[in-house]
Amino acid sequence: MATGRSNKLVGQTGEYLVAAELSRQGLIATTFTGNVPDYDIIASDAQGRHVSVQVKASQGNSWHLDFARFCNVRFQGKRQIVGSGKKCPVRRLVVVFVSIDVNRADRFYICTWQCLRGLLIKGHKAFLKRNHGIRPRNPTSMHSAILEKTLQPYLDKWVIIKKNLR
After folding, report:
1. What is the average pLDDT across 11-22?
2. Which partner for 39 in 52, 91, 110, 144 could form a disulfide, CB atoms 3.0-4.6 Å apart?
């Protein structure tokens, strides 16, 4: 069973793994260890351009997110109605999903926050459609998950980080 301490260790491991990979990409990476609300790392290049990076780490094949951070949702009784997407909390925010492997074959999936928002909205709408607009266990839940197979096109797309340096 996951504990607060083990969850914190997974998150911290993920941040350091991403920072190390960013360094391998020729960028300086500074971690904030959860002390900044919307991002975990600032990466910068030799010209002083920088980008904010949010890290999501998991030891499994999915990551759990709060859908309400990405999209407006209203209710009709128990039915969830997906509204418009929310504005990115930080300009040019990039999200790196880390699948931490016990054999140290860690995998990294890189996409923009806006891309992630689109994936989550598409997945949430499909889930609701299969369930007639009502979340089966808890109709008011804003829990959302994204699976590793959904992120497959973004495997090792470090170029997304470099494209967002400004």
Report:
1. 96
2. 52
What separation in angstroms does the CA of 130 have from each of 136, 137, 145, 146?
10, 14, 16, 17
Which pLDDT tens digit goes with each residue over 112-146? 999 999 999 999 999 999 999 999 999 999 999 99
H helix or E strand, kind and range, residue 158: none
CA 131 to each of CA 125, 139, 142: distance values in angstroms, whole numbers, following the listed order: 10, 11, 15
User: How many structural domains are present in the chain?
Assistant: 1
Q: Domain range spanning residue 87?
A: 4-163
DSSP, collapsed to helix, strand or coil, labels residue 23 as helix
Q: For residue 104, what are its two tokens?
A: 């140290």
Which neighbouring-strand residues pair with 56? 97
| Distance (Å) of CA 117 to CA 19, 51, 143 | 23, 18, 14
- CATH number of the domain to which 48 belongs: 3.40.1350.10
Long-range contacts made by residues 148-153, C-beta under 8 angstroms, separation at least 24?
148/61, 148/62, 148/97, 148/99, 148/107, 148/109, 149/61, 150/119, 150/123, 151/97, 151/109, 151/111, 151/119, 152/109
Q: What DSSP character marks residue 102? A: T
pTM over 0.85: yes
Question: What residues form DSSP beta bridges with 71?
Answer: 85
The CB density around residue 86, as the number of other CB atoms within 10 Å, is 13
